[in-house]
Amino acid sequence: xxxxxxxxxxxxxxxxxxxxxxHPSYYIPTMLGAPLFQILFFAYIGRYxxxxxxxxxxxxxxxxxxxxxxxxGMAMTIGGERWTxxxxxxxxxxxxxxxLFLGRSLPxxxxxxxxxxxxxxxxxxxxxxxxxxxxxxxxxxxxxxSAVACTAFGLLVGAIGLRARDVFFLANLAVFSLLLMCxxxxxxxxxxxxxxxxxxxxxxxxxxxxxxxxxxxxxFADVDHLFWTxxxxxxxxxxxxxxxxxxxxxxxxxxxxLETM
Length: 261
Prior knowledge:
By secondary structure, the protein is mainly alpha-helical.
């Protein structure tokens, strides 16, 4: 029961505390304004070049934008605690580490879903993008699992932040690497072989591929292998992040370097 309370209540309080130093007046434009211009930018470039239709860019960017909150949020969960020098007191508690940090992921996943829904709405409203009503439930499931996988990837970035000097640089690098390499705006078959191989091991790639097929009219049964692959990648990154975090925590206790910048 204690773990459940840490998971839900701790995650809620941590997310609410975010607004003690980040005012909604610029948090909301960051989470919704940037997606608006990102989708319009790439869609109009696609129109100019004739590479793909609007739906290709709307779906790719809408799913990718679900990653923004997860990667940045989880990296800042650990990096921010370290920066404010509250990481040591936090880790001195007997709280279960999975409950402590995964609980903080729930608001970020929900935030990513809201951003993605907004992005799809922008595509429907301003661009040549239509979505059949029967495609919405499987598409929502795909976006959800993609957001979960990216949040697990963000936890890995945060775990590395226990040793890296600047976790915020790592978070930026991670987000823009996903934007570049996961087929968001460039078809995977246009990549060199080594780059495509890397993209297949990253979160988002399979989720975006599945989302595009569903948006084009495919059923969930046609893309379930992509769905489970995306989920498996998320589980792998989450498990690896947790193992790395516990290793760095134990090593940091031994060397007294948990908050060394």
